[in-house]
Write a structure and sequence with these properties.
CATH superfamily of the largest domain: ATP-grasp fold, B domain
Strand order of the largest sheet: 14-13-10-11-12-15-22-20
Distance between the termini: 75 Å
CATH architecture of the largest domain: 2-Layer Sandwich
Shape: globular
Radius of gyration: 26 Å
Number of helices: 17
Largest sheet: 8 strands, antiparallel
Number of domains: 5
Oligomer: single chain
Length: about 625
């Protein structure tokens, strides 16, 4: 068994690997950038090495610094986690050439599956069903457009070197293809250094089904059943579950057998995932499930597989990398119960899921309710340099219904603040009637986006409790008006509150309430239905519901302007794209808040902007 291990990653996955390694008696080494000097994974490891500035391209993506850190600390092996360098065949080769153990598949397997077009050809040869599409070498816009037209819309443009939902665009009409292609190629070049794409038929009732596979150096390959990852936003997974709802045994056997064939076709070792797309319009059927791609690493959603199989996949990775055979045969693996994982992010669903950046002052979830995989703790900061995931909340119960209920309870009771998170969005999504019934596809979130992302409001009852807490603060004068003075009735006073979103509430309270038991607070929190509201006594006059937008479009975070689609004087319609900002490794389209005219434009393509900088101002159309 490996005795010492460097984890070439950060945050949640670094902490996850450290936990298993510690249980096996393996010494661990963390690496960290300037931004992560005080991070949880740094403190949890036995040793930590600084590898550079905050930007990933200057630290976590510099393979030689990671190899140097392993040598300097005497680490025998490197575990890449997921993301960053985990599917980089050249890095894997450099690790092996340095005399270190690579905890992952052979570089040749990574390379074989790393390019989507080559991987599809390989799968066809191995007898694995694939979706119709274009994989050709001619990458001219005219040829790609012609192929898309021939396949028939909708189509999906996918970066050949893509992954993680990046470099993908769905196109509904031929007239939209050129713009979508250009955007996809830009994102692919930025994220992967390769702007080549392939075209696939877009399945109208798609479900994302993936199979966990595992191979060793002795020629053994097994599957650990399937996961359903259909709840997605912009091709990024939101909630994952295992097993897949509606999967019968015959279909499961066919899909999992195809996944094993795919892994054997590339002589696979270690943990990998074969991703399939299914046409769920008539339920899950083996003849309507097609190969999409293989992820040659551990997946973010691997805990749901661990929960239903009782297998520690990181332990299996370390044992296989040490030369041991797989700990279990196929006939020793079975499904036990149901598991779900929700990805908790520092992001604001009501603002297009824009990341929230700042300090996490409060963070608490009950481990009696759920497994919490995280690299965040109270006092940590969410920076603009990395993915804003806070934690993975995982629940395992006997049935799907019990699992949904348990995950909703865990989210409702969990505390994260003061950053805005997607916790309430997840809570509402889990309670969606279609999802509860197992009627899922990758478009469910988009179809219900308005309902799922609407800014919730605290109940009158909870606002009343909050007002009572705040009114009890010594020395404050919360009363703004007297009301309800009726003959024979107790006089009542009105307390005005405001929340972190600038909304105002008027709460009637007794004139002389007894507040002896309430703590003195200048601000208090309401946790309700998965949301957290921070309320305080209003400092200024206001009205419930907030004010209308003045048309000022501000930068939601630091970033780079990729394109500007309007000019001063242009007439624009509500929802029309004004410009595209690249931040947090993603492109964000900023749109007009109402019909009007572009009155001010302060940036051009290529400009770097800071958070809350004015970008565009739209004057509202009169009448």
């Amino acid at each position: 068994m490996i005795q010492s291990l460097l984890i070439a990653n950060r945050g949640e996955i670094a902490c996850r690997v450290i936990r298993t390694a510690r249980g096996l008696g393996i010494r661990t080494v963390a690496v960290y950038s300037d931004a992560d000097a005080k991070a949880l994974h740094v403190r949890e490891a036995d040793e930590a090495v600084h590898i550079g500035p905050a930007p990933a391209r200057e630290s976590y993506l510099v393979g030689q610094r990671i190899i140097d850190a392993a040598r300097a600390t005497g680490a025998e092996a490197i575990h890449p986690g997921y993301g960053f360098l985990s599917e980089n065949a050249e890095f894997a080769e450099a690790v092996i050439a340095a005399g270190l153990v690579w905890v992952g598949p052979k570089p040749s397997s990574i390379r074989a599956m790393g390019l989507k077009d080559a991987a599809k050809k390989l799968m066809i040869a191995a007898g694995v069903p694939t979706t119709p599409g274009y994989l050709g070498e001619d990458q001219s816009p005219a040829r790609l457009q012609a192929e898309a037209d021939a396949i028939g819309y909708p189509v999906l443009i996918k970066a050949v070197a893509g992954g993680g939902g990046k470099g993908m665009r769905r196109v509904e009409r031929t007239e939209d293809f050129a713009d979508a292609l250009a955007s996809c190629q830009r994102e692919a070049a930025s994220s992967f250094g390769d702007d080549r794409v392939l075209i696939e038929k877009y399945i109208l009732s798609p479900r994302h089904i993936e199979v966990q596979v595992f191979g060793d150096s002795h020629g053994n390959v097994v599957h650990l059943f399937e996961r359903d990852c259909s709840l997605q936003r912009r091709h990024q997974k939101v909630i994952e579950e295992a097993p897949a709802p509606g999967m019968d045994e015959a279909t499961r056997e066919a899909v999992c057998a195809a996944a094993v064939r795919a892994a054997k076709a590339v002589d696979y070792e270690g943990a990998g995932t074969i991703e399939f797309i299914a046409d769920g319009s008539e339920g899950l059927r083996a003849d309507r499930i097609w190969f999409m791609e293989m992820n040659t690493r551990l997946q973010v959603e691997h805990p749901v597989t661990e929960m239903i199989t009782g297998v520690d996949l990181v332990e299996w990775q370390l044992r296989v990398a040490s030369g041991e055979p797989l700990p279990k045969r196929q006939d020793e693996l079975s499904i036990n119960g149901w598991a779900m994982e929700a990805r908790l992010y520092a992001e604001d669903p009501a603002k297009g899921f824009l990341p929230s950046i700042g300090r996490v002052d409060s963070f608490h979830f009950s481990e009696a309710q759920a497994r919490i995989d995280t690299g965040v703790e109270a006092g940590a900061a969410i920076s603009p340099f990395y993915d804003p995931m806070i934690a993975k909340v995982i629940v395992h119960r006997d049935s799907r219904a019990e699992t949904i209920a348990g995950l909703r309870d865990a989210l409702a009771d969990g505390v994260v603040g003061p950053l805005v998170t997607n916790k309430g969005f997840l809570w509402r999504l889990l309670g969606h009637a279609g999802f509860e019934a197992g009627v899922v596809d990758t478009g469910l979130i988009e179809r219900n986006l308005e309902m799922l992302t609407a800014r919730a409001e605290p109940s009158a009852e909870q606002l009343g409790y909050a007002a009572m807490r705040l009114v009890g603060t010594p020395g404050q004068t919360p009363w703004t008006s007297r009301s309800g003075l009726r003959l024979g009735a107790e006089p009542r006073l009105e307390a005005r509150l405001t929340d972190q979103f600038g909304r105002h509430y008027a709460i009637d309270l007794p004139q002389e309430p007894a507040f002896d038991d309430w703590p003195a607070e200048a601000e208090t929190a309401i946790d309700e239905q998965g949301e957290r509201f921070l309320v305080r006594l209003a400092r200024t006059e206001g009205h419930a519901g907030g004010a209308a937008s003045d048309g000022a479009i501000l930068a939601p975070m630091p970033g780079k302007v990729i394109s500007v689609d309007v000019a001063v004087g242009d007439t624009v319609a509500k929802g029309q794209k004004l410009l595209v900002l690249e931040a947090m490794k993603m492109e964000h389209a900023l749109t007009a808040p109402f019909d009007g005219t572009v009155a001010e434009l302060t940036v051009s393509a290529g400009a770097q902007v800071q958070v809350e900088a004015l970008l565009v101002r739209v004057d509202k159309e009169e009448g």
